[in-house]
Amino acid sequence: MTNLCPIMHPVAGVYLGSCAAKIKKNGNPDLVIMELTEGALTVASFTLNAFCAAPVTLAKEHLKSHSPRALLINSGNANAGTGAQGMADARQSCAWVAAELGCLPEQVLPFSTGVIGQNLPMEKLHEGIPQALANLSITGWEEACKGIMTTDLVPKAISREVKVDGHSVMITGISKGSGMIHPNMATMLGFVATDAKINQACLQQALTDSVNLSFNRITVDGDTSTNDACTLTATQKADMPTIDEVNSNAYADFSNAINDVMIELAQMIIRDGEGATKFVTVAVEGGKSTEECLKVAHAVALSPLVKTALFASDPNWGRILAAVGRSGVDKLDVNTLKIYLGDVCIVENGGKALSYTEEAGQAVMNETDITILIQLNRGSVNETVWTTDFSYDYVKINAEYRS
Amino acid sequence: MTNLCPIMHPVAGVYLGSCAAKIKKNGNPDLVIMELTEGALTVASFTLNAFCAAPVTLAKEHLKSHSPRALLINSGNANAGTGAQGMADARQSCAWVAAELGCLPEQVLPFSTGVIGQNLPMEKLHEGIPQALANLSITGWEEACKGIMTTDLVPKAISREVKVDGHSVMITGISKGSGMIHPNMATMLGFVATDAKINQACLQQALTDSVNLSFNRITVDGDTSTNDACTLTATQKADMPTIDEVNSNAYADFSNAINDVMIELAQMIIRDGEGATKFVTVAVEGGKSTEECLKVAHAVALSPLVKTALFASDPNWGRILAAVGRSGVDKLDVNTLKIYLGDVCIVENGGKALSYTEEAGQAVMNETDITILIQLNRGSVNETVWTTDFSYDYVKINAEYRS
């Protein structure tokens, strides 16, 4: 990855304004407003953490009753663990944006990422909001991308022109997060916009499906944040018939394109995990259900023993085998499953594969991108998750984060 | 903890012999045989890992049909991931012991701990078994304790004379394991013997209950081994009436004493976790069920973010809050729960406790023994687990283990 954003194509009907409101100590941009044209539809997906932050609670509430006209995003402060004051602050922030834009406060969705447990610096927000609005522009994506970063080392953005049943559609999105390795600053946020014409139900379906294939499939350490959120906005500005049926070629094209964008944005977060030296794909094939495939995948992806072996480039197949074995899948028959490291079979018939050699395993482990494939051979469901290794730097970063 | 065993009282009817069969490279004792007197009853609890090792499979099989007369334990090789050859080797080992002792092979229970995926060195076992048997003695506990160690830094043993409904009963036990931080060498094994007179059903109940309160409540990194096992033998030699009813004072006394011994043996494993700098108690109170209490306890105890904060002695309450929030307990009301660090309330009313100060939290975090208490306030079930922090050494030990 590079420190440069890719070329970010504007999306008709989306205007972005950013400023440095000094919420972040380093003086980088930390306040972003996305104004959405009248008639744009926005759907969102939020963290399942029971301790969700005030802006998450408020954004859900606003989405129930109104169609959003603006997204307000601040970095540097998560407004989480802030109780009643946090809710009041989130409401006030939305009201300030609404007053400037001439919409209802309920038409503004708030998002925050940063330190947990400190109240929002309301004066800075009050001063920053007009500044951010003053530079609203359809070309503001790159600044916005930088404005939502916290401990991210690189900006995460993608922009694609795709064909939807023959019609040109633009999709541009940004994300942030260092793979949950900075808990207080590690919110995963994603904001994707398209000019596609599509109804609410189809848009919601496309978001739900794509988040399940992307943000819900990446994991560094199993910790999910209080603030995670992802939005998908369709401005309806493209020259095309409205997608109003999930069983259509147009929906299939659109859905595939959104999946690709979301997966890429999510994988960028994993690749930017500080302390991460490996990009690891854990694929589980032949399960009876999504649930059991994910149990196995997460047992392997989250095992500290597997992750430290990955860091050491050590083809320690016994750790992978033990992790699969303890995954809790009912009646798992260890004699019929197979485990591969890259294209090297490491486990079959309940033990080390006869064909396995340490040299072959080592060759795979020496790569930066590694795939662990587990074939359960008991069903037809496949699932994939992406993760990183555990390095000295993981401990260093997380042990020293607040000191 | 010290490197010295406590005084180990013999248990009438239990004879222990050890030798250095050179299965371990360092020349330390690695083969232990416990001969059990005629009439002794033995119950056992095994790993739930689907990839259980050959000796675990065989020990379960033997226990179904016969009353054990001997336990055969080797360290240095786990005989796991060894397929059909592993089973044949385990059977042969039992047959050799049986031939020497004049019992059936099915009356010998095998246990192995050490490297995964290598076949047992059968010649060394064949030579070692007579050597170990040659020094069978009721005073052989200390040697046995050292003989089952792998990467353990200290021997783990306990011996107590207790009163069971007024009668003196001896309980002596040994355990090994470095808290699962050495996956291939980290099997948790526990062997406890008592001279109590007790029937099979009561003995089994005492073991099941005590393992649930001890070995099943310790966790370093969530990885369970292919070889974990714990046995409880009652030789029936004590001068007392037989305990044959769980609803009796005698059973209550016995059960409490076994619980204490098992918890102490299990906690010794946590304290010996290499890389561990903290001993952490995670207590969950007021849950609706054991299951939900353990979900919360494990979410906190296994969170790498919480564990690295513990290593840094950082009172990062936001990480604990986030871990509780993502524990997956249904309808968890974050506004009614409370979280304490030692006796300092850190979370209440859905956010940081108003009374909380960084100084108070820091004072608790500076201790070596730390208690995190989560009061769910929605039921009457309490559960406790014990764990450690994540240190640089955790990564170092596990990354460099095989190189």
Notes on the structure:
- The structure is a homodimer of 403-residue chains.
- Chain A has eleven helices and 15 strands.
- With 403 residues, chain A is an alpha+beta fold.
- Chain A has two domains: 258 residues, L-amino peptidase D-ALA esterase/amidase, CATH 3.60.70.12; 109 residues, Ubiquitin-like (UB roll) (Roll).
- In chain A, strands 13-12-11-14-10-15 form a six-stranded mixed β-sheet. A five-stranded mixed β-sheet of chain A has the order 3-9-8-7-6, sandwiched between helices. The first copy, chain A, has a four-stranded mixed β-sheet with strand order 1-2-4-5, sandwiched between helices.
- In chain A, helix 5 links the parallel strand 8 and strand 9.
- Chain A is globular, with a radius of gyration of 22 Å.
- At the A-B interface, helix 8, helix 9, strand 13 and helix 11 of A face helix 8, helix 9, strand 13 and helix 11 of B.
What's the helix and strand layout?
2 copies of one chain form a homodimer.
Chain A: E1 14-19, E2 31-36, E3 41-46, H1 54-65, E4 70-77, H2 83-101, E5 108-115, H3 122-134, H4 141-147, E6 156-164, E7 167-176, E8 189-194, H5 200-213, E9 229-234, H6 249-271, E10 279-287, H7 290-301, H8 304-311, H9 317-325, E11 338-341, E12 344-348, E13 351-352, H10 358-365, E14 369-375, E15 381-387, H11 392-400
Parallel strand pairs in A: 4-5, 8-9, 10-14
Antiparallel strand pairs in A: 1-2, 2-4, 3-9, 6-7, 7-8, 10-15, 11-12, 11-14, 12-13
